Amino acid sequence: MRSLVYAGLAASVVGVLSLQTTASAAEVLDTGATWNAACNAAMTCRLTTSDLPANDGGLAIPSFVRTSGANSPVMMVLPTIDGWDTLPSDGKFTISVDGEEVAAIKVNQLRQDDAEGGYVTTDPKIVQPVLAAARVGEDAIMVSYDGPESQEVATADLTGFRESLDWLAQQQHHPA
Prior knowledge:
Strand content: 25-35%
Radius of gyration: 20 Å
Distance between the termini: 52 Å
Shape: globular
Largest sheet: 7 strands, antiparallel
Strand order of the largest sheet: 1-2-3-4-5-9-8
Mean pLDDT: 78
Structural class: alpha+beta
């Protein structure tokens, strides 16, 4: 009887330790130069750039987020301009890779998400071309915002983008 109790206790300890190991592994951060990739314990993964907006306000480069579900779409987050809570609906974001326009999105086509810090879309007709272009891009990604009261531009080099995107796909067992 005592051996059954010890065996049960040992199995419980091993189970708890393996859960802790899994949760810790999910929080691993893989840095690829300018681009960073991270997944939390729930396997929501994020691809961001380390380039921050200019000190005078400005715009940040988009980030990409995907939850762990098998058919989860990638969400592109277009940050709000520093100092603005809401952008005018007739404003427009333009994303270019290596100098070629990939997407132009009006603010009214996006959903404001304060938790993500900007405007978001999961529309694959917008997000997938941006990801595909950045994956094969050799130089830089640029986002510009053109609105009735403000014009802003942000640029980041693509160093580490492809490797970080591949790492995220591997973590979530999604095709790259």
